[in-house]
Design a protein that fits this description.
CATH architecture: 4-Layer Sandwich
CATH superfamily: L-amino peptidase D-ALA esterase/amidase
Number of strands: 16
CATH topology: L-amino peptidase D-ALA esterase/amidase
Structural class: alpha+beta
Number of helices: 5
Low-confidence stretches: none
CATH class: Alpha Beta
Radius of gyration: 18 Å
């Protein structure tokens, strides 16, 4: 499995600053994708997400950007629009006139990234140019370059995270259907193995310790947050099943169960968690079955984001 690019019509590219620990991840849908969004975090930063509303005029989007750099990273979307315009991909507004529709969501990595270096238009265009149908690179790349998890006690006791992607194939009458997720994991909370429930990454018991403190337990005991508004888990879920914007919105809602399984706790007031669901295909499947697969793919993508993250800037990662 290649990750999100297992879904026909989806291209993925990263741009990563070589030494500043920041970057962006671009998903392109040159034939367009029906899309919906579900936002459950309380510290979200985004641009043009209203395009995904079932009430919005436009039926399909052409790209999606996840970026580091906090609000500064929203500039990356303009680079993706410029790239798609050159290729003639976009929403037709008149003879020879197109506007690429590219929503963008950001995560906060300013505490890890080199001061003053943020993803911008050029980085967005570079990530779009790098987008392909090859296996999705995972770990500390793109929007995950500066991502961390377990920040209840601040960065000094956090762990490194990054990008993860995972595909679930359906069975029986839906044997041709796939659902895949890509997650940029920069969570306030910890990460659990969604199958065993065991904590695998997150806030550590001490600055020199590898033992996990269990953020949820400490929160219940009155611990105060050390990283406020500096966290977000961004997820894209794609399927080759045909969906309307209403159905895509429902799929995004159903996929949020994956965050609940893998993050402890998810959707906090300090996080900007959201899920964007995308449809690029023509297969048919029951929306509830797709939701089961989407939740599984999301949980596993979150797990892979920490499993494949290496130690960076003194922040320990599971990949060594």
């Amino acid at each position: 499995m290649k990750g999100l690019t297992d879904i026909e019509g989806v291209l993925v590219g990263h741009a990563t600053h070589p030494d500043a620990l920041t970057g962006c991840t671009v998903m392109l849908f040159e034939q367009g994708a029906a899309a919906g969004v579900d936002v459950r975090g309380s510290a979200t930063g985004s641009q043009e997400m209203d395009l995904l509303s079932p009430l919005h005029l436009t039926a399909r989007i052409h790209g999606l950007v996840f970026s580091g750099g906090s609000a500064y990273g929203l500039e990356t979307a303009s680079g993706v629009r410029r790239f798609l315009e050159k290729k003639g991909v976009g929403f037709s507004t008149g003879p020879g006139l197109i506007v690429p529709l590219v929503p963008c969501a950001i995560l906060y990595d300013l505490g890890v990234a080199k001061r003053g270096v943020r993803p911008g238009r050029e980085m967005g265009e570079a990530a779009a140019a790098a987008a392909s149908g090859a296996a999705v690179p995972e770990g500390c790349v793109g929007a995950g370059a500066g991502a961390t998890v377990g920040k209840l006690f601040g960065l000094a006791r956090a762990m490194k995270s990054g990008i993860g992607s995972f595909t679930v194939a359906l069975d029986g009458p839906y044997a041709t259907v796939r659902v895949s997720a890509l997650a940029a994991v920069n969570a306030f909370g910890d990460v659990r193995d969604p199958v065993s429930g065991r904590l695998v990454a997150g806030a550590r018991a001490g600055e020199r310790s590898r033992a996990l403190a269990d953020s949820a337990r400490h929160l219940k005991a009155g611990a105060r947050a050390g990283a406020i508004g500096e966290n977000t888990t961004l997820v894209a879920v794609a399927t080759n099943a045909r969906l309307t914007k209403v159905q895509a919105t429902k799929l995004a809602q159903l996929a949020q169960a994956g965050l609940a399984r893998a993050l402890s706790p998810p959707w906090t007031i300090y996080d900007g968690d959201l899920v964007v669901a995308l449809s690029t295909g023509t297969a048919t499947a029951d929306i509830t079955a797709l939701g089961v697969a989407a939740a599984e793919a999301t949980a596993q993508a979150i797990l892979r984001a920490v499993q494949l993250a290496h130690t960076t800037a003194g922040i320990p990662g599971l990949a060594g």
